[in-house]
Design a protein that fits this description.
The complex is a heterodimer.
Chain A: H1 3-26, H2 32-45, E1 62-72, E2 77-80, H3 90-95, H4 97-107, H5 115-127, E3 137-148, E4 168-176
Antiparallel strand pairs in A: 1-2, 1-3, 3-4
Chain B: H1 8-23, E1 27-28, H2 29-48, H3 54-58, H4 66-72, H5 88-107, H6 111-128, H7 135-148, H8 160-163, E2 176-177, H9 181-201, H10 205-208, H11 212-217, H12 231-234, H13 236-256, H14 260-280, H15 286-294, H16 300-314
Antiparallel strand pairs in B: 1-2
Helix pairs in contact in B: 2-5, 2-7, 2-15, 5-6, 6-7, 7-9, 7-15, 9-13, 13-14, 14-15
Classes of the chains: A alpha+beta, B mainly alpha.
């Protein structure tokens, strides 16, 4: 077998393999069971791809935003808020893109495990200019706000420039920053 | 009369010929250069945006220290950070190396080696911190992966100015390298992305009733402040046109790109679509990396055309 033939044989095997990886992961008709088989291999190589949706099957019909409240040992509290995305200039929005994605994922139930370290980081960020240095942060409450985008089937339409009216607010998680001294171990969830 | 119309003996060689003529076609060096330079530029902008928050996103005092990230990530997800000490100095060293290798890829210095390293860094950072990423990062990873298998070595030290000052009447073959199968894979990947997105949209009622763009334009995260004409998104018939037009573009561009008669038109429509989205929505680098991917469909004649136009602009035309 010549070097050229061997090379093209190897190239064709690679092409076939990459095509299979691409199609199994991206084509919606492929059963998830089969996609699940190739996913570990794709993840290991670094070529995993999720379903390409891009605002599908439907764009979100409401706006969300999150905030966090750090409660200190002296009973005071301070609030941490990401920027208001809609009020940012294009350049500011470009630079804070990763932060907005991070905030979206902190709210995502799939990333609950990332909240304790997020809470520590938020408390540390606020500690930079804390007014009473003797107070230590005790817990961080995560809050979400939600506002519906007006139904387009009713006229006249709201302008796209109008700010969202956030109509509901609730606490979606609370993270203690340090275990309370003498905490009852029986109350610890398994 | 025989009942069997097909013969394996004839079909297999014919299929092999079709496969070879599809995947192992010569590719213009200038196109490889365009892909290499645009890809490296987008990746460079992407990673430079991490700079101010590098410690926050990837550091031990940041939002997700390594131990927490390790518990969160899929065990199959590979990252170089699993093998190196988790410290601020190492993080900055890795990041600096990533920037350096992306710049070297941009400049065409040992481009294939740099493409492999840039891909390894990109995957490592993405798998290190799973909370930050979007579709553009997927496209960036995938194009980067296929580029490793492209004959980038022939584009070493070739930059945009040299591409656009090449002889316009040069035969494409003189600038060609034997097999551009990796470029074919980029083309196929781009088509799969658009077709899958079109299919997914057809499952949604807002895409079918023509209101999806109304919602998308009112999401705080994506709203573009300044410069976007509001009437486009405040007028029902225009919104319906934009909604259904998006599905049509995502469904037909990947098909029309494969036919000689419609290829340029489809590329032009894809260009307008992405520039329009860039203008009206904030999607970070998604549309730029998509344009980089679509550039895999450019032909030698297109490069000749742009070269001539470039020379005309510079007043160098003889």
């Amino acid at each position: 077998m010549t070097g050229g033939v061997r090379k093209s044989w190897l190239q064709n095997v690679l092409i076939g393999l990459f095509l299979l990886l691409m199609l199994i992961q991206a084509v919606p008709a492929v059963p998830p069971r089969i996609a699940g088989i190739v996913r570990p291999m794709a993840l290991w190589v670094g070529v995993e791809q999720d379903q390409w949706q891009m605002f599908a099957p439907n764009p979100d019909r409401r706006n969300h935003r999150i905030s966090a409240r750090v409660v200190y040992s002296d009973g005071t509290s301070r609030e941490w808020r990401p920027p208001a995305w809609r009020e940012q200039s294009r350049w500011e929005r470009f630079l804070t893109h990763r932060l907005s994605k991070y905030c979206e994922n902190i709210y995502n139930p799939g990333f609950v495990a990332a909240r304790p370290t997020a809470a520590k980081w938020i408390a540390a960020e606020l500690a930079r200019d804390v007014q009473s240095p003797s107070a230590t942060p005790e817990r961080v409450e995560f809050w979400a706000e939600e506002g519906d985008i007006p139904d387009p089937h009713y006229f006249p339409w709201s302008s796209m420039a109008e700010a969202t009216e956030f109509t509901s607010r609730w606490q979606f998680d609370e993270v203690p920053l340090e275990p309370a001294p003498g905490a009852d171990l029986d109350q610890v969830q398994p | 009369m025989t009942t069997a119309l097909l013969s394996w003996k004839e079909m297999l060689p014919a299929s092999a010929r079709t496969w070879n003529s599809f995947f192992h076609v010569p590719v213009d060096v200038r196109l490889l250069t365009i892909l290499r330079v645009t890809y490296a530029a987008v990746v460079l902008i992407n990673i430079l945006c991490w700079w101010p928050d590098l410690e926050s996103w990837f550091g031990e005092a940041g939002v997700l220290p390594w131990d927490a990230a390790n518990q969160l990530r899929d065990p199959a997800a590979s990252t170089l950070f699993a093998w190196i000490p988790a410290s601020s100095t190492v993080l900055w060293f890795c990041y600096s190396l990533f920037i350096l290798q992306t710049v070297l890829l941009l400049l065409g210095i040992f481009p294939r080696l740099q493409a492999a390293c840039v891909f390894a860094w990109l995957v490592s950072f993405i798998h290190r911190q799973p909370l930050l990423w979007d579709s553009e990062d997927q496209v960036m990873r995938l194009i980067g992966f296929y580029l490793i298998f492209a004959p980038l070595q022939v584009t070493a030290f070739v930059s945009f100015p040299r591409v656009f000052s090449w002889q316009t009447n040069a035969s494409p073959v003189s600038n060609a390298v034997p097999s551009g199968w990796a470029i074919r894979l980029i083309q196929l990947q781009m088509c799969v992305i658009f077709l899958a997105a079109a299919f997914a949209k057809l499952q949604g009622d807002t895409w079918l009733d023509g209101t999806a763009v109304y919602y998308a334009a009112r999401l705080d995260e994506f709203a573009a402040r300044g410069g976007t004409p509001q009437f486009l998104f405040d007028t029902p018939w225009i919104v319906r046109f934009l909604t259904w037009g998006t599905i049509a573009i995502e469904a037909f561009v990947p098909v029309c790109l494969w036919f000689r008669e419609t290829r340029r038109g489809a590329l032009f429509v894809a260009l307008l679509f992405h520039l329009g989205c860039l203008w009206s929505m904030n999607l970070f680098l998604f549309h730029w990396i998509m344009l980089c991917g679509w550039s895999a469909f450019l032909s030698s004649e297109d490069v000749d055309f742009f070269t001539a136009a470039w020379k005309k602009i510079l007043g160098k035309k003889s």
